[in-house]
Amino acid sequence: MQTITELAKRTRLLIMDVDGVLTDGRIFITASGEELKAFNTLDGHGLRMLQSTGVQLAIITGRDAPGVAHRARGLGIDHYYAGVHDKRTAFAELLQKTGIDAADCAYIGDDVIDLPVMSRVGLAVAVPDAPSFVRQHAHFVTGCGGGQGAVRELCELILQAQGNYDRLMAGYLA
């Protein structure tokens, strides 16, 4: 069986859920029906660092919220799938579009709707407050919760496994 480091080293595409992963899972709805979500800036910078090393980024989310689309554009997310009810279909399309093998993908999710993709990727990751059934099907469970640095933690794991972390950090000290 491969170690987490060996699985992370292969990652060429990081795929993320949104609610409960990039956010803490809470959805605030204004009187006019607008959805508000809070994103962690540490996650955002982690994604930018990972992307700078050539790893592609994707979001597959069941909800279609304008704020999420705006955040994805702001982060330069390569592939964005919103309002997806069957994540397998979006995942298959993503693999075809990128030409990347499923074994070279990492996915981070928090609920059973994520399992169809988690069960197909090389590195399946869950957040600690995911239901135990989901955590049981993950190769790795982050220490940080969704919207609280879980994605940053995963980005740093991948960067370290691929030998890019120290070089990137040295650039901040130069």
From TrEMBL:
Gene3D superfamilies: HAD superfamily/HAD-like. Its cofactor is Mg(2+). Keywords: Hydrolase, Lipopolysaccharide biosynthesis, Magnesium, Metal-binding. It catalyses: 3-deoxy-alpha-D-manno-2-octulosonate-8-phosphate + H2O = 3-deoxy-alpha-D-manno-oct-2-ulosonate + phosphate. One of its GO terms (molecular function) is 3-deoxy-manno-octulosonate-8-phosphatase activity. It is an enzyme of class 3 (hydrolase). Belongs to the KdsC family. PANTHER family: HAD SUPERFAMILY MEMBERS CMAS AND KDSC, N-ACYLNEURAMINATE CYTIDYLYLTRANSFERASE-RELATED. Homotetramer. This is 3-deoxy-D-manno-octulosonate 8-phosphate phosphatase KdsC. The gene is kdsC.
